[in-house]
Every structure is written in C-alpha cells, then in structure tokens.
Specification:
Length: 227
C-alpha cells in the first residue's frame, strides 16, 4: 500500500427533518480515505451494503441513514491498516442505512449485517461476510478467499477466478454458485434440500492441489451453475 500518511476525509451533508428528537431524520455523508487501508470493516444493523472493487487508489464510502434523530449512531475511524465503518440503531426504534463502498480490488473486506442485503462486485482480496437475515449477491468476484455466513436468506455468487478457499454456510435459503471451469475439492451438504449441478458445472475428479469449496445449507438447495 502507499507510503503516504493515512488521511480520512469526512464530507457530510445532513438533512434533519423536524426539530424534535421524535421526528425522522436523514443523514448522508461521504468518507474518503487517502492512502488506502489494507482492510475495510463494516458493521451495520439494518439496510443495504454494496462493496465494489475497482481500479482506484482511495477508499470512498457513501452512506445514508434514515431514522429518528436519537436512534442514529454513525462511526468512521482508521485504526492501523483498517478502516471501520459502523451504522448502529440506538434505542427501541430502529433505523435503516444504505452504504456504497468503492475499494481497490485487492483490499480485504469484512461485513457484518444484522438484516438486509449485501452486494459484492469486483473484489480480489479476502472477503468475510456475515448476515443475520437477508440476501447476498456477488458477481465478477475473484477473491483469494471467501467466507460467507447467512442465518436466513438466499445466496447468489459468481466468481471469475478460482479462490484458494470458499466457504458458505446458510441456515435457511438456497445457494446458487457459479465458478470458473476447473477441478475443485467440493463439500456440498443440503440438509433437507438437494444439490443440483448444470452439465458444465458438475464436479470433476479432485486434483492436488484443488481449491476447497465448502457449502452447507441446513434448509434449502444448492445449485452449481454453468459459467
């Protein structure tokens, strides 16, 4: 990564609707990090998270949060080689946020989302995603490693290059997976569902070394798609 001193620039444009704490509020901001971190970590209660890997040098996060003024808690901080972005709902009444984060392709990404949607595109680093309830969609991915855990909801992933390791664990929901043609060390378990494979995606004999692909679904189906 760049040797420049890390800088975090916060440009916020907030529109607060109503004057009292019982009125809804909308907050929007852009966070730009000069001298990209090695890792970006998001911790979000409820909403949508979109992470895009691109041919850029800086990390740019655009986000908006809507809820009661007293229910919003946002944090953006740089700790060592990591950038942390948090959007928390405080109190009994919730809020909802939307994040779009553009990162250099090789940056590692970690997302923890209690409920909502995660979209991934163009990432090439280590990717670790945890979603309580919702869905995960990813396309154009070339991660070194990918680990994904979803409590309830569908998963749809398309990779352009074989990962060193891919792990998907879903409590309830279907998993659709498209991998480049090749030999993989598959471990596929669909508890009360079935495992489908398109003709071009059917597992082949394992060669050493072969990337490990471990997909476990407690309730739902697994579908291996043609590329």
């Amino acid at each position: 990564m760049s040797a420049r001193a890390p800088r975090v620039l916060l440009m916020a444009a907030a529109a607060l609707i109503g004057l009292g704490s019982c009125q809804p509020a909308t907050h929007t901001e852009t966070v730009r990090v000069l001298a990209s971190p090695d890792r970006v970590v998001l911790d979000v209660d409820l909403g949508e998270v979109r992470i895009v890997g691109a041919d850029v040098e800086d990390v740019v996060a655009e986000r908006s949060v809507r809820g009661l003024r007293g229910a919003l808690a946002l944090d953006s901080r740089r700790e060592g080689d990591a950038l942390y972005l948090e959007a928390r709902c405080v109190g009994l009444i919730g809020c909802r946020s939307a994040h779009t984060v553009t990162v250099p392709r090789g940056v590692d990404v970690s997302v923890k989302l209690a409920e909502g949607v995660v979209e991934l595109e163009g990432l090439e680093g280590v990717v670790d995603i945890s979603v309580g309830g919702g869905q995960v969609r990813g396309h154009g991915l070339a991660p070194r490693e990918l680990a994904l855990a979803v409590g309830e909801g569908p998963v749809d992933l398309s990779l352009t290059t074989p990962p060193e390791q891919l792990t998907v664990a879903v409590g309830a929901g279907d998993v659709s997976l498209s991998l480049p043609e090749g030999h993989y060390d598959y471990v596929l378990e669909a508890g009360d569902g079935v495992v489908y494979a398109d003709p071009g995606a059917a597992p082949r004999p394992v060669l050493e070394p072969s990337p490990r692909v471990d997909v476990t679904v407690a309730r739902g189906d697994i579908h291996l798609l043609d590329t």
